Amino acid sequence: xxxxxxxxxxxxQTAGLGTKAPVATEKFYPLSLESLGATGIxxxxxxxxxxxxxxxxxxxxxxxxxxxxxxxxxxxxxxLYPNSFGALLVGLGLQPIDTVDVAVPYxxxxxxxxxxxxxxxxxxxxxxxxxxxxxxxxxxxxxARLTSITLDMSTSASGIAFTGFAxxxxxxxxxxxxxxVDSDFAISPIAGSIAFSDLAFMTNPTQHxxxxxxxVDEENxxxxxxxxxxAEETGxxxxxxxxxxxxxxxxxxxxxxxxxxxxxxxxxxxxVILDLSDGQVVESSINMNILSAEVRFMGFxxxxxxxxxxxxxxTMLDNTTTDPVVITVIDDVSDYPFxxx
Length: 341
Hints:
mainly beta
């Protein structure tokens, strides 16, 4: 089996927001994959060191283990493409809001849904096998939710890592009837900007990682069932980590002393706006607007003849009724199969 021919696509299970069934059969959005892992895992009840009296050998595994649970954790890496990013945001529980564009490119606003409204998704996996008469490795992960998206950006590379958790899997009986096509335009971290609107002395980093995390309860298994009953959300957060920020005394005082003359008790906060584009004529872009974030100075090290740079970390705050983050994606997706709450 050749990994370069792998298809992994996501679709919303549209029976109702927050509900599981039925499995999606159309409008799957494939990801521009670089790697993928999606292996079902059984839980076992182990009977070890069991003296059964059927022989005289001191073997530790005399009882047969019992399968007692099943789930499918999955993870992958894909290119920083706007269509892939939009599909991942939907899987992470954000709602795409159409701005009613009538032609390519389309503009979508993504906002975090309330905990009871985030949909489950289906994930289609297909790895063809070139052997004559050999079936492809093809299955659908059911009742799935993404648990994190990480944007990793530097001057030499950029990409997205994601993790997820599915309650089950099925064979190819529900092959998707349609697959969308991803945009050819990858997002470049060079064509963009990062801005802290309430900080005067922040400069661009050499590396920037943004993690959007939505952990779920992976242990909600009831008696008399092999499968988990649900994968409910247990949190939502956005954290950014920047390294290689030019160190200045002004920046240190701004973050550590709240612009005073000594260390201060005031917590440093700022609006954070990350803007990424493809730099092409037919522009695709990603804009992440965090209304308020706590910003921390994470230290520096002066060593040898190196330029002295520092690390900065920021964490989204959600302390008002206003949406804490709005992510704008410009892509060529004309319709996300989404049921509004």
